[in-house]
Specification:
Layout lengths: L3 H14 L7 H8 L1 H20 L3 H21 L4 H11 L4 H7 L2
Helix pairs in contact: 1-4, 3-4
């Protein structure tokens, strides 16, 4: 199922943390450190914006997938996962955005 992909991807990312940098793209990205990961997240976010402006639905989906992937790499680098984000979204469900933002202060 599609929802299982987040769990499988999380497991793969965790395994890549210990892998040799020349063994995979993700292992190499982890070895380069946080700045390289952040650079990829920013790059992918920019590509999402451009794809949206081009009004190309398939290209937008492709770029959002890249952004989500690199964001998951960042989460893994910081010891978090997509599951943590899903839990936070579930916590916010049914709460007004204005209320939720005010609760952070």
């Amino acid at each position: 199922m599609n929802q299982d992909i987040l769990l499988r991807l999380t497991e793969t990312l965790e395994a890549r943390k210990q892998a040799a940098p020349d063994s995979s793209y993700v292992a190499k990205l982890f070895s380069k450190g946080e700045d390289a990961i952040l650079k990829k997240v920013i790059e992918e976010a920019g590509e999402v914006l451009l794809a949206s402006k081009d009004n190309d639905k398939q290209h937008l989906v492709y770029e959002v997938a890249d952004l989500w992937f690199h964001t998951m790499v960042l989460l893994a680098h910081k010891g978090s996962s997509a599951e943590d984000v899903l839990k936070e979204l579930a916590r916010r469900e049914g709460v007004s955005g204005i209320e939720e933002k005010a609760s952070r202060k």
